[in-house]
Amino acid sequence: MLKNKFILKLSIKILVALVIISVAGTLDYFLVKKIKQLNLATREKKEINYLLRNREETTRQIQADFKKIDSDYEAKIYAALPSVYNVLPFVEALDSLAKKYNLKSELNFSQPAPLVSPVGPISLSSVNFSASLRDANIDILVAYLKDLEKLTYFSSIQTININGTNGWNNNSTINFSGRLYAQE
Questions:
Q1: How many CA atoms lie within 13 A of 106 on its CB side?
Q2: Does 117 have pLDDT greater than 70?
């Protein structure tokens, strides 16, 4: 009987010890997991604070680097972004390209649309446009697009459509649409 009481007490103590160990292990697991999450969040906050503190310094450094490369880069950027109220210089540039290649051109422009997210100190809008070039072929189109790429405006071509009765090596009508970025 004394032996049974001893085994019972020992079994209860072992069982209590196992319960305590399992509770401690479970708590340890969750606490370690929570500490890792807090550590990650703290590290991310420190990185963001560092970036925010150094943003002005980085901006000044970028501006200084631009000035080393080209002292009048700001004037060139503003010149490449015509006013939404006066896209005539861009229209004239497209017309002169068409004349250079003896093309008949027709241009259409949509209303300016403000860009959703500001991208800097300049408020920008996009102006969609379409052009139709008649009496062109693929060689003229390639040369035209190369010259278009050399223009000093921030613009992009989105679609090109070539319509020709005898293939694109002969006189065809080329329609393209694009986007011009302009200042508000």
A1: 6
A2: no
